[in-house]
Amino acid sequence: MKAMYNCKEVSQFVSESLDRKLGFWTRVQLWMHLSMCGLCTRFRKTMIRVDREVRQHTQDVEQESRNPEEALSPEARERINRRLRSLDQ
Amino acid sequence: MNDRSSENPDLADPSQWMEKHGDYLFRFALSRLRDPETAEDVVQEVMVSALKNVKQFEGKSSEQAWLLGILKNKIVDVYRRRNRDPLNMGENAADISERLFDQHGSWKKEIRAAIRCSLDSLDREEFWQILKRCLGGLPSRQADVFTLRVVDEASADDICKELAISSTNYWVILHRARLQLASCMKQRWFAESGK
User: Which chain B residue shows the shortest CA-CA distance from A44?
Assistant: First the structure.
């Protein structure tokens, strides 16, 4: 078994664990490191939350379940309308 | 769902498209592409292409869902186009992990206080406001790979194919994006809350 992972390696495996299941020994070592390292534990929590919040935000936009922050600028709206009218003729 | 077209489900009415769906399509495009100008251009492309193909609209789905389908394809086109541009690759940027870890792979002393800082007290809106700025700071390709993976849950194979990157490179890009986003969140919040 390889020596303990360092924090840099741990961050890499935490990232990877968000995409695919890690091997058994990797998980064991990751857990061992995290149980002793407060910094990596806090960092892991933030990594997980970033993924979740980005996903949640785009879903809200798609389903219109969040108060709209952004809108087309009047200029862009006018430009597109003009373009559509020119095609219509 | 916002489905006003149900009043007349069989007919698409192009003169109403901008009024009814313009902002929605723009917001959707912006959430995937992040740049307002690009998002505006894509909305225009969608409208033009929808107008040219209006006969294909069969009223099976709502007008909005139909336009959204066109938009999703256009967004992938943008990802493809802009990620072929070497300027967007950000490969020359200093490796983020060198800014965070020392030569032994431990957290650098000067950033430990920020990394230790908890974000638990932030509600979703506050978290998102900071995250939005952090996403804006990512090299475009990193952000695009991250979005495709996390938001669209595209498979690694598909992403590599669409953006013409190797599988090794894909994992590196994704990890750097996450490392950068999480550390940016920590550092920004630490700077703000420490005042």
Answer: B182
